Amino acid sequence: MQGDDIFAFLTAKEGMKIHRTNCSNATNLLAKYGYRVMKAEWVANMDTTFVVDLKITGVDEGIGVIERLTKEIGGLGVNIKSFHIEGGDQGYYEGKISLLVLNREQLNVVMRTLKKLDFVETVTRID
To answer: What b/e readout covers 87-104, taking b as 16+ CB neighbours within 10 angstroms?
Structure first.
């Protein structure tokens, strides 16, 4: 996603591929194939959106949790691609929200806003 630290890797058969520096393959690629790694950076493009998955947990206050979450996200001008939430036996919920964001900065605003809600415990990006 625009704003993530990235590098380019020249594969043997598929050409150039872009990896985030914190992806699970990055350490291995950089250590073993450093000679095939090239610097890469994002070019600003306001017409592109990226799908990002968030895991969210918190206190299940009953009716209205989904409405409050979607209202906060929509109020930030972010589109929700998919939304799944389940309540637990212990009064907590866990959900997965897929969002269409412009860049990492917009994602960070969404995550900070959700974390400030009194019924939200955690918000983490799923890789």
So the answer is: eeeeeebbbebebebbbb
Look-up of token digits 């409405």: 67
What is the C-alpha separation between 33 and 95, in angstroms, rounded? 38
* Contact yes or no for 9/36 (Cβ under 8 A): yes
Distances from the Cα of 9 to the Cα of 2, 12, 13, 15, 37, angstroms: 17, 10, 12, 8, 5
Q: Residue 59 corresponds to which amino acid?
A: V
Three-state DSSP class for 95? Answer: strand
Q: What is the pTM of this model?
A: 0.64
Letter for the amino acid at 105?
E
Q: Counting Cβ atoms within 10 Å, is residue 123 exposed (0-12), middle (13-18) or buried (19+)?
A: buried
Tell me the per-residue pLDDT of 14-64, one tens digit each, with 9 for 90 and over. 777 777 787 887 888 888 877 777 777 766 665 678 889 999 999 887 778
Q: Where are the domains of the chain?
A: 6-39, 50-126
Class of the 50-126 domain?
alpha beta
